[in-house]
Design brief:
Blueprint (H helix, E strand, L loop, with lengths): L6 E8 L5 H12 L2 E4 H8 L5 H10 L12 H10 L1 H30 L4 E6 L15 E5 L2 H12 L3 H9 L4 H7 L2 E4 L4 H15 L1
């Protein structure tokens, strides 16, 4: 994706509770860029009849299906965080489908609007875990300290600290991601401070 002529494809990644969605949304707003979200695409692929839905059914039978044939997302999420072997198997099924959809969206929109330089900001929570870092240039990590991330996850998902820690533990440690990134946005403090960093990043990018 990074090699597409006249197209800027920036990846935003991070950890749970780091604020990557807010960072991506603001960068899109000030940079007049098209936003794509890997999690949103994955949810769409898990709708009844879609390719991800078919893949889950083929691999795991009826285990994760409700009576109306939709995916039991709460059960899927629970097992995903508790069972590493299952997590690897599910990611192996879904990640290629999501990646292909991202590529397809970028190619379609670039050709449709024939812009001199199309801009895309793609939010990929598991970018390093999926080893997609070479698909994008540059990669931006939204960072926040562990206590801040835990507090945000507990508040957002209404779960205990133990559950939040388990969820965070299923991903690569955020400091490791920050060391691998081309740019880091520290979102531990006030949103106004974060916005100043994103404004600076936008000037560097475009």
């Amino acid at each position: 994706m990074a090699e597409q002529a006249q197209t800027s494809v920036v990846a935003i990644t991070g950890g749970m509770g780091s604020g990557k969605s807010s960072v991506a949304a603001y960068l899109c707003e000030i940079g007049v860029a098209r936003g794509l979200n890997a999690d949103t695409i994955c949810r769409r692929l898990l709708e009844p009849g879609a390719s991800g839905w078919l893949a889950v059914g083929k691999a795991f039978g009826k285990r994760f299906f409700l009576a109306d044939q939709s995916i039991d997302r709460s059960l899927l999420r629970k097992v995903l965080f508790e069972d590493q072997e299952f997590r690897c198997e599910l990611n192996g099924l879904l990640h290629p489908l999501v990646r292909n959809e991202i590529i397809s969206c970028i190619e379609k929109e670039t050709g449709l609007f024939a812009q001199a330089r199309a801009r895309f900001v793609v939010e990929v929570p598991l970018l390093y875990e999926a080893q997609w870092e070479h698909d994008f240039s540059p990669v931006v990590v939204a960072y926040a300290d562990e206590k801040t991330c835990l507090r945000r996850i507990m508040l957002r998902d209404r779960i205990s600290e133990v559950e939040a820690e388990k969820a965070m533990g299923a991903q690569m440690p955020l400091p490791h991601k920050a060391l691998l990134a081309d740019h880091v946005i520290d979102n531990s403090g006030s949103w106004s401070d974060t916005c100043l960093q994103i404004l600076h990043l936008q000037n560097l990018l475009w």
